[in-house]
Amino acid sequence: MSVHNTHAEHIDSETGKLGMWIFLFTELFLFGGLFLVYAVFRAKYSAEFHIAAGELNAFIGTMNTVFLLVSSMTVAMSLTAIQKGDRKLAMFLVLVTILLAALFMVNKYFEWTHKFEYGIYPGSEVLKNMSHGELLFFGLYYMMTGLHALHVLVGMVLLSINVVRIKSGSVNSNHYLMLENSALYWHLVDLIWIFLFPLLYLIT
Amino acid sequence: MKHEDKHISSYSSLAIVLAVLLFLTAFSVWITGFHFGAFTVAVALIIACVKVATVLINFMHLKFENLFLKLLVTGVFVMFTLVIILTFVDYYFR
Questions:
Q1: Which among B9, B18, B51, B60 is the top mutation candidate for probing chain A, defined by the most A β-carbons within 10 Å of its own β-carbon?
Q2: In A, which residues are within 8 Å of B8 by CB distance?
Q3: Which pTM was predicted?
Q4: How confident is the model at residue B92 (pLDDT cuts 50, 70, 90)?
Q5: Cβ(A125)–Cβ(A176) under 8 Å?
Q6: Nearest-CA distance A43 → chain B (Å)
């Protein structure tokens, strides 16, 4: 990497990636705090959490897990494609990832609206009449899945920018730090869900 | 500037990783169908940890990264585990 007198932009991908990882650590602790609150209240109100968690649809949860796992693979494959110089395939794979993310959000929409129909939403009368433990469960459920869904949306925006950049050629087989970091972010969204899924949907 | 000595994951290896992750998901759904109380919780969480490690190592290319980053990531997870343990120690023994 000799210094030339050209006006080339210097991209230090190692440092760029390290920065991304450090950001991911802060994200991990953001959700980690919520996991901790969940764990303590689950221990305290185990019977009520058991009843409340029974309301969740494990099938939808499993489907969303599959969507996110497959999308994690497609985004990892898009990185392979860009490294090999196949921009078209890379773009296609990022688009598939965005589509899977959209399917996740559609599922989440149906899941939430179904609960709203039963009057289960933050601040509702139904929720106010529930026991303290159930109230806490649904509060944490909306907070954790809501914050996670927000991350999915941010991921979709990031991946869309990558599609544009791959198309324009600014993300290519030599410069793909942005795709690499976006992929890391997307994997984090997957990682968080891997913990959320058994905690909320399976262990009832 | 350029990505020197870049490590490229093959498409087939990524597909195998996905197959493993899907299998683990199916397994955790199946095992939690039996209600063994604390045992079920422990198994579900252990499977989740294995899945997370699989994603970190393969999809997030941690296996190709330098020792510094590997230690950093391990350290963060160890720290979080300690936070959980300390919280529960405080909670049960106060």
A1: B60
A2: 80, 83-84
A3: 0.91
A4: confident
A5: no
A6: 9
- Kindly report, residue by residue over A155-170, the tens digit of the pLDDT: 999 999 999 999 999 9
Residue with tokens 């589509």: A99
Chain B residue closest in CA terms to A18: B69
Q: How far apart are CA A51 and CA A64, in angstroms?
A: 22
Distance from CA of A128 to the nearest CA of B (A): 27
Give the relative orientation of helices A13-44 and A177-196 as an angle to the nearest 10 degrees: 10
CA dist A108 and A202 (Å) reads 17
State the count of interchain CB pairs (< 8 A) between A and B.
106
Interface test with A, best of B24, B29, B64 (most A CBs within 10 A): B29
Q: Are the CB atoms for B15 and A59 separated by under 8 Å?
A: no
Chain B residues with CB-CB distance to A183 below 8 A: 59-60
Extents of the domains making up chain A? 28-202
**Domain made up of A28-202: CATH architecture:** Up-down Bundle (1.20)
Distance between CA atoms of residues A163 and A145, nearest Å: 27
List, as one string, the DSSP characters of A164-196: HHHHHTSS-SS--HHHHHHHHHHHHHHHHHHHH
pLDDT in tens, B53-86: 999 999 999 999 999 999 999 999 999 999 989 9
